[in-house]
Design brief:
The protein has about 210 residues and is an all-alpha fold. Helices cover about 80% and strands about 0% of the residues. The longest helix has about 40 residues, at about 10-45.
Length: about 210
């Protein structure tokens, strides 16, 4: 734990500064931000919704759920039996989940009132699906690209996982359970957490 903090002190400081920025934006620009977010939210729900897209994005959003990650970890452990990589994935995911909850309850932004699926119990800002999805699949991309599988497979897997990461954010917007600023903040926080873990893995050679 001490090594992790020491290696990533600047990343951790950046996350703290980012949180302070979020607090100030909520304090001074909450009305303007909500007005813009509601415009995007309402435009999507009233102009872009179809049965096919709804079914598709429900599948995508489930690929960003904690339950799906647990199933993935179990499958990867059974198939590849690489406990070291499973530990990397699970530790990065757990850290992302906890940081997400801390930010959510500090900012404490209410969810949109209209959505296509049941609204989650936790606050809206930032998007936990986006943060955890970026960190989990991003770590998986890192592990794949540092494995001994063929280069072409690495490219295909990387492209596929990047698309999933992007679609998870779109799914949260489309289904109406997040505002655009929630999703953007999720990608920003998620990238910082991902870079933090990759930095740690590289410096500690683990």
């Amino acid at each position: 734990m001490k090594k992790f903090i020491s290696v990533n002190k600047y990343y951790l400081l950046t996350i703290v500064l980012l949180l302070l920025t979020f607090i100030q934006v909520k304090r001074y620009f909450s009305y303007e931000l909500l007005t813009f977010d509601l415009f995007i939210h309402d435009h999507i729900l009233y102009n872009l919704v179809s049965n096919g897209l709804t079914s598709f994005f429900k599948v995508i959003t489930n690929m960003g759920s904690v339950y799906f990650y647990i199933i993935c970890l179990i499958i990867l452990l059974v198939v590849y039996k690489n406990k070291k990589n499973i530990l990397k994935l699970s530790s990065s995911l757990l850290t992302a989940y906890l940081i997400n909850l801390v930010i959510k309850f500090i900012i404490n932004r209410k969810r949109p009132l209209t959505s296509l699926i049941s609204v989650p119990w936790d606050p809206s800002f930032p998007s936990g699906h986006v943060i955890c999805g970026l960190v989990f699949y991003g770590t998986l991309i890192y592990l794949v690209n540092n494995s001994d599988i063929k280069r072409l497979k690495k490219v295909f897997i990387t492209i596929f996982l990047v698309i999933i990461i992007l679609l998870i954010g779109v799914s949260r917007l489309y289904l109406g359970v997040h505002y655009l600023s929630d999703v953007c903040a999720g990608y920003l926080v998620g990238l910082l957490i991902l870079f933090m873990f990759i930095n740690y893995f590289k410096k500690e050679n683990i």
